[in-house]
Amino acid sequence: MKSTLTVAHYLKENAELLANKIVDDIIGQFGFQVSDTDISQARKVYSEFLSFLSESIDCEEGSVPEELLEWSRENGEKTAAKHHRISDILIRYPDTRMVFADFILNISIEFGLSTEDVVLIIKRVHHMLDVSINETVLAFERKSEEILEKTKRELRELSTPVVPIENGLAVLPLIGTIDSDRAEHLMNHVLPKIPELQVEQLIMDFSGIVDIDTEVASHIFNVYRVLALLGINVMVTGLRPELAINAVSEGIDFSSIKTFANVKQAIESNKQKN
């Protein structure tokens, strides 16, 4: 016990100096460049890591410094925000473990620690590193999901614009795949804007639709019914031959909706009626 207390005091008093050496040794194992900012941050974190290790040698197993957790989360979030891979971080941990193992071995020899004491310290180090990995991955996943959802929202906005053509006439180009998310966005965010634009005639253009099936048709008819209830006349354009064939084979009936080959024809037809 006396030896471990001596080691704890040594780690506490020399945390910054030892952290600098550990970081240098870890970076020396990497086969890639590390930025000065990351190196500086790592020195700070490992200094705090060693200080906490010194305090936790004789404490209850399982505790981890909040500074290490916060650093791990920041690493995960920063990696996700830069659209890097989580493996860019995880690849560093085996070398980190090896350097720490050598560091603990040298300390144990210098201070004459027993095998039991060495195992205790190594267990504490590995536990903290494992928790650090977990926090990093979880933060990476949370940030990645946040970025993905933001991107999806932006794409939904861009892929379903209502484009005014002339007084009372607008085009709603449909692009990509109409799934439940896109349909919900159409119903809750796009449709409410159409009356505000004082649209009386709306052209729904299918030119950018990848494929069509009964589910897509159901979503489209829901949009059509809502617009009809609002007194807005709907025309459909851009049903390519393959889409039309698929529609027929799926049993989709467009007979109740006015269809045109393209937007130009729909506009000309509208002008002739007026």
Write the layout of secondary structure elements.
Elements: H1 2-13, H2 15-29, H3 36-56, H4 66-81, H5 87-90, H6 93-111, H7 115-159, E1 163-166, E2 169-176, H8 180-190, H9 193-196, E3 201-209, H10 214-229, E4 233-237, H11 241-249, E5 258-260, H12 263-273
Helix pairs in contact: 1-3, 2-3, 2-6, 4-7, 6-7, 8-10
What does this structure look like?
With 274 residues, the chain is an alpha/beta fold. 67% of the residues lie in helices and 11% in strands. It is built from twelve helices and five strands. A five-stranded mixed sheet has the order 1-2-3-4-5. α4 runs parallel beside α7. It is rod-shaped. The N and C termini lie far apart (96 Å). The mean pLDDT is 82.
Largest sheet: 5 strands, mixed
Order of helices and strands: HHHHHHHEEHHEHEHEH
Which stretches are poorly predicted, pLDDT < 50 over at least 5 residues?
Answer: none
Strand line-up in the sheet with most strands: 1-2-3-4-5
| Shape, principal axes of CA atoms | rod-shaped
Structural Rg: 32 Å
